[in-house]
Structure formats: structure tokens, C-alpha cells
UniProtKB/TrEMBL annotation, chains A, B:
PANTHER family for this protein: ALDEHYDE DEHYDROGENASE-RELATED, SUCCINATE-SEMIALDEHYDE DEHYDROGENASE, MITOCHONDRIAL
Organism listed in the record: Luedemannella flava
Lineage: Bacteria, Bacillati, Actinomycetota, Actinomycetes, Micromonosporales
Pfam family, one: Aldedh
Entry protein name: Aldehyde dehydrogenase (NADP(+))
Record flagged with keyword Signal: no
Keyword field: Oxidoreductase
Annotated InterPro entries: Ald_DH/histidinol_DH (IPR016161), Ald_DH_C (IPR016163), Ald_DH_N (IPR016162), Aldehyde_DH_dom (IPR015590), Aldehyde_DH_Superfamily (IPR050740), ALDH_KGSADH (IPR044151)
Bilayer-crossing regions: none
Length: 505, 505
């Protein structure tokens, strides 16, 4: 171990703030030991009490806004407007989980009273509820220094579930990570949360040690396929394998029909280039593949829109180098032609050119492995299809995705097939919109089949993200007074419950 | 590959029925290809239509009872009474999932209408539901030739979810596996299910090939820790890892307090020995660890109850050999003394002696790895505790379990602590009963932390077992007429739905 994370301003390549030392194995063990010690007390809080504490953290994050946004901007260059919005979203996530705890359906209470006449055998009294797994490791992402980092959705959903959290900070923004960690820890302490319920560790090696620590019962990760796969393999290879919720990579295929182009070609060009270059293309939901009918005639308009786009630098040197390597590789796939490919950028920091290519659907189908991988950054691949069969063959080669988008007219004959195709390959199917921007709601699903995630049953955004950290326990024949309050006959917490198979309010 | 599974009568060691040839890789590929081809049509059936088909299978299994029970008895020697009950339970499971499909809550529909005022940003219309994962591999268990085998809970819950199933049959009962496979396949065909939606493969190597087949999207397994871990590792090591739901091994700790012994010692002795020897101790929920206060004075009564127990042979030669090896190992753990240990059995077939040992809690804590592993068969270990601290230390060393049982008086001071301790380590907490016998209901949880299962969030028994094979998809901004019926405004399937955060009937 040893070493430190040093914040770098992506605009200039210059250091920002003091280095944050890497956590050694003793430091990781101290964090996980404290998390394990805190687990019973944190789990034992009533949901409304835990909700109050989450609200206190939300308020503390809000109160530190004037500190946090400039710190994050200096280390990420994502811009004040974007980071201001992201901080609001992050605060809202804490408030949303607090509200969900007060509603209580996350406990998923099910009561089957004893039934001497049940088939195949008389049934004892059975009462089931959800309980927290235990300490959770959270791996912060680079591209959302708030919403998918130290104070992000993985952290709050695990805390909401009743699990202590140890975050492994992302090395691209150590300064804001350390600052927001102080804010969260202080708010938790002031609100009466047990010591050790939240901590942050730093450094690559600390992250490897963390996922194999015996005290850790689950892990959540947002990042690259390579990084996520390495941690997933460590989690699965433990003597006691643990759930690993990784959100890895996604091409987010977007299909545009000829009728949609005829109806609103200019708008589609603007929307696509805007979504592809938003945040310098560093969204996990960036539309990386745009399926257009062959002969679409949009090349010039696409090139103009790319030329007009303002694109900031990438987040760090490693990501910038990876972007150039990945797009260079894409340019060499048979049949790929440039549509709008900028020259190497001669500025300081981690600026890169937008790179938009095109290729035929037949060539994608023939070279799927080379053509169909994510280029993290402001790059896209247009796939030109000759007919419906050609389109569906290429779409069928696209790996699992977080999102899949259709731009069509409702009476396009292919639409029902397309929507089914998309639903079979992605966690979110979008009609007439763009995938960047993920609403934080009950219904949201931010996940999908491999490699979009390691666990297609779950989401990392929205209320149901809490389900990743809860497991069912059923009590059989336990006297009412000895049951957890959630399961008692009197329903003292006024929870929604399923009794004898029927939902009750 | 090559070779065949040969049924053997455990009472005699003699062959029963014709050998069933192992499936070669081409046969496995044919099954998975057919399953993949069947997946869209099976997924597209309305839930009530799929329910009708499950009911038809239930009726066909019932109609074949007179065939199936004797076949299973010849290959397992579990006895006609037990197998008759197990067949009823198995039929009831098909009917239960059919009823659950008609109710529709498995689709978990959530609708967030568009909201221009939502924080942190205006919200599009979002509608989420569950969709099937795709073809599922099911690994049959030895110990329940119906309920956890070809027609068992894994098969029916995956089919109910809308997933085609390829079962890998257990080699200990190939004849009844092949016969019930014909019954199921015939009923599915007659009821109009798509070809390929269900098939069975045979042989160890076929099982290995199956879990790595690209068409397979999830696997469910019931069996040993070693076998389950090997398949789990293959599933996790795929280029595209898939969910692996393994139910592996469980010690099912049972704690008895001094007050409970004082109140009903004889009843406890009878109950424990009955549960430990039920089905020759070959239940995954067998109480393998009995915690008694030191000086309990029950040795003679325990030995008498063991002597009076009628215990059939084990299921096959490998299990019988493993039982003798495991119990021999247990006898050598420091401090272990015999309580009721029969001599080697000199009968034909796979008869083994009951073996009940005792050891101090302190010795268990000191030798946890050697003392705390499952002995599949009619064996148990009594753990004698000096005081509460001694008890909790030894309990804390017990690995994750399917069940944990408390026999106490409600006013025992330790009871609340004990129940919390049990809930932290098991999926089912039982008061005053015995863990063998698993009710098939909404509330049942048959699962637990590693090594009880590979996936503590899930159950393999009860209605919610269906959740293992469903993943969420959210539709964003899709016009009503293009949505799946479950998500349309008019709610044509009358589903329970969460709208704007509130449950609706």
C-alpha cells in the first residue's frame, strides 16, 4: 500500500488540494471491524428513527453545498451547473430513502397464520420480514462525484436498509470525497447513529482488501467492466461468496426509424449529439450506438452538431488514454468510416476530441466483438441498417445494456417487435427520449443483463435499490410479544402487510 | 461423457429399472437451444394462461401418482407414506404458483406518471414490471425425489416466472426422474406450451456443460456444499456470469434452555430424535446441532430414543460412505464423546447407524472448523453450554443456516438475545418446534447466509421463490397502446400496482 490519491484539475493537469493517503490493511480492518460492531445497533433502529438520521445527513450535505460544489468542480471539471444539479439529486436520494423507510414496504412483511387444514400439511404460524445483510462495501465511481460516489445512491440505500457502509473512494476526486465524508460522518454522529456505521477508505489495494474482508456481507460498485469484473471475481471467490452488485458497462443502443427521421431529423440529430456529449460522454447511459436506416443523409448535420458541441475534458489521465485507445480500435474495425472525428486536442489537461463513426449493420454483426464495446467518453458509433432483418440481426449481437431507446412513429410496423427486443436486452426501454438522465423514483430501473450489471435482478437507482441489502427471515410459531414489532398482530408500525395471501393497507 | 445413471434400491443395493443414458454435449446443446427458442413464446403468455398450464401439469402429476410413488420408493427407500405426502406437496406447489400467477403481484408493477415539478428534475412517465430472465438450469436433489427434483419447486417457480427449464436429473433416482419428465412434458404439450420449454438431461458432465451454456441465464441447485460450490464457481466464472441459486448445507442449530427441559424434557428428547432421524436424517433442515445446558441429564433418554428410532437406509452408496467418513471425523474432534452411536450395520444396501455425539461449547468454539460441518444422514452433535456467554460464543461460530430453533420459556431472560442471534444467522427462526417440514406458503423463507445458500436474498420454497427468475424492466415515455398490458392505464389484467408511490388494489 502506501501512496496517496492526488486530485488533479482535468482542465489543466495541475494538482488540486492535498494528497489523501491510501488506507493500509490495518486501516481497512479498523473500518470493517467498526462497521461490524455498529451493525446490530444500526439494524435495531426503527425505520422512522433511521429515516430521521438520513434526513439529517441530507440537510448536512445541502448545508455544505457551497464547499462541495467548487471542490468537486476543481477535481472533475464537470462544471458548476451540472454539479449543482447532481448535488441536489444526491440530497433528494437521502430524502427519498428516508420517506421510503417511513412507508415501510421495504420490510415486505408477509404473515401466514397457522392453518390446521392447509395442504399438503397443517401449517404453523409464519411471519416474514426483511432484515439487513450486514456491513456493505461501496466502490465509488469517477463520473458522478456526488450521486455515485461517497454520498451516492449505493451508500444511502445500504444505510437505509440498516447496513453499515465502508466506501472505497474513487482516486479521481479524493478531496471532495474526504470533505463529504466528514460532512456525512459528522451528521451521523450528531444525529445519534452508532460509531463505525460509515467510513471511507482510499487506494486500489484497500479496495481489494475490502471486498475479501470477512466482515463485509455485500458490495456495490459502479465503474468499468474490467474493474468491476476483478472485484466481482474476488467477491465470488471468497470462502463465503457475497452478493456483488456491479454496474459495469453499457452501449445503450438507440434505434431510429426512417419515419422518425422524416418527421424530426434535425431534432434527433441535436438530441443524439447532446446526449452523447453530455458530461463529456461520461455517463453510463450515454447512447453509444445509434441505429439509422442506410442512406439516412444525416452525416453533415451530425458533423455540424458535433462541431458545435462544447465538450469538457475527461475526468482523469487514465480515462483520457483509455478513450483514445478504445476509439482508435473502433476506427480499425472493418467497414468503419469517420463521420465527425476531431483532431488530437492540443490543450492542457485531459481534453479529447469527439469521435463519431459509422458502420453497416452487416459489418457489426460480422465483427461484433470488436465493434460492440463501450468507449467511455464523447464517442459514438452509427450502425446503418439496410432493412428490418439487418437491424434485428445487429441488435441481437448487442450485449446486455442499461437502456435501449426507440425513436419511431407509433404506427411503424416494426415497433412492437423492437420494444420486445429492447426489453429482452436492457433494464430501461425509452420511447422518443434520450437515455442520459435517470429519474430517482419508485419505478426506476438502472440495471440490466451482463455486462450492464453483475446482477440483473437489481437496480442501483430508485427506491428498490434498497432491496440489494435486505434478506428475508421468517419467524415460525414465535409468541406475539417476542416477535419484532413489524410482525406483531397489532402492527404497531402500521406497515403494509400481506396476510393470508392478501395485501392489507 | 457416455455411461448411464442406474437406479439402485437402497434397501438391497440391487439395480432397479433400466439404466438411463447420460446426455452428451450435443444433447445438452439441443436442450438449451430448444429452451432458448421457446423462451419468447413462453414469456409472452398471459399469467392466467401460464397458470392454466401449470394446473394441467399438477393434474397430470396427480394422475400418475400410482406410477410415481412406487418408482420413487424403489430408488430411494424413503417409504410410501413419506413419498405420498411429498407427491401431494409437489402437486400443491404447481397449484400454488398457478394461483400466484393469477393474483399477479409477481409482476411487481410500479407506475410513476410524468411529473414536471419533480425534484431533482422533471420526471418522464416511468412504468416498471418484472420480466423472465430466460432459460434456467435446475439441478435436482437426491433427498426429495419429487419436491426438490425434476417436478420440484425450482422447476415450477422458474416455469411460473416465464422461463424455460432444463433439469439436470439426480443420479440416485433416474427411473422416477425419467418417468415424471414424461408426465410433465406430455402435460405441457397437451396444454399448448411451446416445444422446448422443459427438458431433462442426465449425467455429471452434462451438468457441468449445462451451467456454462450461453443460453442458460440462471441456475438453481439443491445439494452438497462441495457440489454446489463447484457449479457456483462455474456460473460465476462464465464470460457472462449468471445468478446461481444454490441451497447447500445447514447445521440448523437448536437451542434448549434449562427451563424448557424442566418443563418438557421427555417431549424435547422425542422431538429432537424424531426430527434428526426423519427421512434417515437426509433433510436439509435436519437439526444437526442441539445446544443443551451442561448437566442436562438427558443422555439416557436420548440414547433410548435413538435406540427406538426406525431409520431407513441412506439414498445411495456415495451418501452412505460420506456419512460414515463425516461422523468418524466428528468423533475425533477434541472433547467429543458418544451419546448414542450404533455399530456398523451389517445389512444389505445403504443402512447406516444413527450417531449422536456430545461436546462442550468451549470445545466447539475452539475447534469450530472441525466440529461445525454438516453430516448428511442420521447424526447429531449435542453442544453443552456452561452459561449464556458460553452458549453465545459457540452459537456465534455456527455458519449461516437455513433454520435456527429455540426451545425456551417466554420469560427466559436470554430469549430476546437468542432470537436476534438466530435471525442474524438463519432464514427461518423457529420457536418451540422442529425445523424438518417446510410449509409451502407466501411467508416461507427457505434460505440463509452462506453456506446455507449462495444467495441469501432468496428462497427456494414458497411463493417468493419465483423472484429468483424475474428481473425488472422500466418503460419510459412509451405510448399506452404500445405498453405491455400489465402497464397500461386501464390495467386490463387487474393487477395490484404501485402508482405514484402508493399501492392500489
Amino acid at each position: 500500500m502506501g501512496g496517496a490519491d492526488q486530485g488533479i484539475n482535468p482542465l489543466t493537469g495541475q494538482s488540486v488540494g492535498a494528497p489523501v493517503p491510501h488506507t493500509d490493511s490495518a486501516g481497512v480492518a479498523a473500518a470493517t471491524t467498526a462497521a461490524r460492531a455498529a451493525a446490530p445497533a444500526w439494524a435495531a433502529l426503527t425505520p422512522p428513527r433511521r429515516a430521521d438520521i438520513l434526513d439529517a445527513v441530507a440537510a448536512a450535505i445541502e448545508a455544505a453545498r457551497a464547499d462541495l460544489v467548487p471542490l468537486a468542480d476543481a477535481e472533475t471539471a464537470l462544471g458548476e451547473a451540472r454539479l449543482t444539479g447532481e448535488l441536489t439529486r444526491t440530497r433528494v436520494q437521502w430524502e427519498m430513502f428516508a420517506a421510503a423507510l417511513r412507508e415501510g414496504s421495504h420490510l415486505d412483511v408477509v404473515i401466514d397464520p397457522a392453518d390446521p387444514d392447509a395442504l399438503p400439511a397443517p401449517r404453523p404460524d409464519l411471519r416474514r420480514m426483511m432484515v439487513p445483510l450486514g456491513p456493505v462495501a461501496v466502490y465509488a465511481a469517477s463520473n458522478f462525484p456526488f450521486a455515485f460516489s461517497v454520498p451516492g445512491g449505493d451508500t444511502v440505500s445500504a444505510l437505509a436498509a440498516g447496513c453499515p457502509v465502508v466506501v472505497k473512494a474513487h482516486p479521481a476526486h479524493p478531496g471532495v470525497s474526504a470533505r463529504v465524508a466528514e460532512v456525512i460522518a459528522g451528521a451521523l454522529r450528531d444525529a445519534g447513529a452508532p460509531d463505525g456505521v460509515f467510513s471511507v477508505v482510499y487506494g486500489f489495494e484497500a479496495g481489494r482488501v475490502l471486498v475479501t474482508d470477512p466482515a463485509i456481507t455485500a458490495a456495490a460498485f459502479t465503474g468499468s467492466i474490467a474493474g468491476g469484473r476483478a472485484l466481482f471475481d474476488l467477491a465470488a471467490g471468497r470462502p463465503d461468496p457475497i452478493p456483488f452488485y456491479g454496474e459495469l458497462g453499457s452501449l445503450n443502443p438507440t434505434v431510429v426509424t426512417a419515419a422518425a427521421i422524416a418527421a424530426r431529423g434535425d431534432e434527433l440529430v441535436r438530441g443524439f449529439v447532446g446526449s452523447m456529449t453530455l458530461g463529456a460522454g461520461q455517463f453510463c447511459t450515454k447512447p453509444g450506438l445509434l441505429f439509422l436506416p442506410a442512406g439516412h443523409g444525416l452525416d453533415e448535420r451530425l458533423a455540424a452538431a458535433v462541431g458545435a458541441a462544447t465538450v469538457g475534458p475527461l475526468l482523469d489521465e487514465r480515462i483520457a488514454a483509455g478513450y483514445l485507445r478504445a476509439t482508435d480500435g473502433l476506427a480499425e474495425v472493418p467497414g468503419v468510416r469517420p463521420v465527425a472525428v476531431g483532431d488530437a486536442v492540443d490543450a492542457a489537461g485531459w481534453h479529447v476530441p469527439v469521435r463519431l463513426y459509422a458502420v453497416s449493420a452487416a459489418d457489426v454483426t460480422a465483427n461484433a466483438d470488436a465493434a460492440l464495446h463501450e468507449c467511455f467518453g464523447p464517442a459514438g458509433l452509427i450502425v446503418e441498417y439496410a432493412d428490418d432483418a439487418d437491424l434485428l440481426a445487429a441488435l441481437g449481437a448487442v450485449p446486455g445494456a442499461l437502456t435501449a431507446t426507440v425513436h419511431a412513429e407509433p404506427d411503424d410496423a416494426l415497433v412492437p417487435t423492437l420494444l420486445d427486443f429492447m426489453a429482452a436486452r436492457a433494464g430501461r426501454v425509452i420511447w422518443g427520449g434520450w437515455p442520459t438522465g435517470v429519474a430517482v423514483t419508485w419505478a426506476m430501473q438502472h440495471g440490466g443483463p451482463w455486462p450492464a450489471t453483475t446482477s440483473p435482478l437489481h437496480t442501483s437507482v430508485g427506491v428498490t435499490a434498497i432491496r440489494r441489502f435486505l434478506r428475508p427471515v421468517v419467524y415460525q410459531g414465535v409468541p406475539d410479544a417476542l416477535l419484532p414489532p413489524a410482525l406483531r398482530d397489532a402492527n404497531p408500525w402500521s406497515l403494509p402487510r400481506r396476510v393470508n395471501g392478501e395485501m392489507t393497507a
